[in-house]
């Protein structure tokens, strides 16, 4: 097996090509119907960190299982964070990702909150470049498809004392992706969790850490049992304000054309799609209120006709219309409500930028294959 040394600034990445890389025919079969998060490319990135040596041993290696000591602290105390971003293939074949500096900075903020080491923005973006350099053929080209990239960081010191680990691993894996929801871009129903909270004041709600998702799984089961695709969480303190969904932010479109979305109060994830939608809406001259939205506001707004559209947004979900909110004692909206006009128009504009069909006037794209 050849090991090629490559130089990058400031980390140097080595490359060990996979001896088991899939043949073109097998890859194309997967890319024809990738689903979401089911298939993985031939390689992965691995970078080690210790308190003594800092970040070192940056490698692109064959995709495969990690060796973890059973005492690795991530397995016991969930010291873990992750990111999610996509690589889009443009019509000329070139490969681009969307606002990766924002993901890099959010990973740094998550690292601070979880007492993990920060990786520089440059090393984060270089880790994406290195993976795409070797696995670029895994970026599908059909409409609405992409390569979903999942960087993550885990505490892998073998130690059962409860403190920040002295040994950490950063990895990047990639998975060809179609629509996140099985129904594609069709409106989804969401389930209101009244019994469970996602985040409280001073907690980890604004960090992208695995623990937040672990605690969302039980209400997510409830959602599925009730025919809903996602869970909506309310603020833990009053149980009356809309926070966000298990894996997406939420927006409301009002009759006069303005938008509203829950303010960033420290308990919700600072979504990059959310921020981009705010910018695109303001570019159109629309007002966006980042504010407190209560369940009463939502119900009354739908009843009076002031709220005309509701949608979810995130890297995986892009922009997905919400038709109805259901809960044990509540039903707002209509399951047959069609996708909203502004919802779909913002979705089109965002994806046109991501897929290079319209000028990238905000400089949001980073080309990864050149
Ligand atoms: N909220 C949560 C809990 C998420 O997991 C995500 C997905 O990453 C988002 C919001 C949307 O964030 P982004 O638009 O950066 O993907
Ligand atoms: C993303 O949108 O990137 C996420 O991490 C959300 C998850 C539900 C897939």
UniProtKB/TrEMBL annotation:
The modification N6-(pyridoxal phosphate)lysine is found at residue 208. Its cofactor is pyridoxal 5'-phosphate. Pfam families: Aminotran_4. The keyword Mitochondrion does not apply. Its EC number is 2.6.1.42. Keywords: Amino-acid biosynthesis, Aminotransferase, Branched-chain amino acid biosynthesis, Pyridoxal phosphate, Transferase. The keyword Amino-acid biosynthesis applies. GO terms for molecular function: branched-chain-amino-acid transaminase activity. Pathway: Amino-acid biosynthesis; L-leucine biosynthesis; L-leucine from 3-methyl-2-oxobutanoate: step 4/4; Amino-acid biosynthesis; L-valine biosynthesis; L-valine from pyruvate: step 4/4; Amino-acid biosynthesis; L-isoleucine biosynthesis; L-isoleucine from 2-oxobutanoate: step 4/4. InterPro entries: Aminotrans_IV, Aminotrans_IV_CS, Aminotransferase-like, B_amino_transII, BCAT-like_C, BCAT-like_N, BCAT_family. Belongs to the class-IV pyridoxal-phosphate-dependent aminotransferase family. This is Branched-chain-amino-acid aminotransferase. It comes from Alpinimonas psychrophila.
